[in-house]
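Researcher: I'd like a candidate sequence for this fold, 150 residues long. If you have to choose between options at a position, lean toward the conservative one.
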């Protein structure tokens, strides 16, 4: 019998923790005015203009309320705007990146691209294949165990 501490789920958990800390360190070292989670939201708003909070929460695997806190923080810092819009019979809040938010997004993206490129060069693996396989593992686990982030 294999020990849990020698299993794929455990290795993935440890790797996730280490990479999360590495990203947190990257943001702190560069003195960016936003953290990794806020940058992730800017990235999603850039990729999916008009995305609503509940869809954004599903995309980043956070609860709707938790996602709302990040959106509020970004709005208070002037990096996004949130405006009411009609969606059928409901009123929703649409988020958009401001010009200063776009400037910050591009600055962080450039620095992060270089950082990730350097990190990937140290690895002797097909990074794109690993990413595809990790997505498959995540999607499979979410379906099998009916995992939802609300």
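Model: Candidate sequence:
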């Amino acid at each position: 019998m294999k020990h849990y501490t020698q299993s794929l789920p455990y290795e993935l958990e440890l790797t996730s923790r280490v990479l999360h800390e590495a990203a947190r360190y990257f943001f702190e070292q560069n003195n960016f005015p936003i953290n990794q989670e806020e940058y992730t939201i800017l990235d999603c708003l850039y990729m999916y203009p008009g995305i609503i909070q509940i869809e954004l929460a599903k995309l980043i695997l956070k609860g709707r309320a938790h996602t709302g806190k990040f959106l509020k923080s970004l709005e208070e810092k002037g990096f996004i705007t949130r405006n009411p819009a009609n969606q059928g019979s409901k009123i929703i809040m649409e988020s958009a990146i401001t010009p200063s938010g776009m400037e910050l997004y591009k600055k962080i993206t450039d620095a992060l691209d270089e950082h990730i490129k350097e990190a990937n060069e140290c690895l002797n693996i097909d990074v794109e294949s690993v990413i595809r396989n990790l997505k498959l593992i995540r999607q499979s686990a979410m379906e099998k165990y009916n995992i939802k982030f609300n």
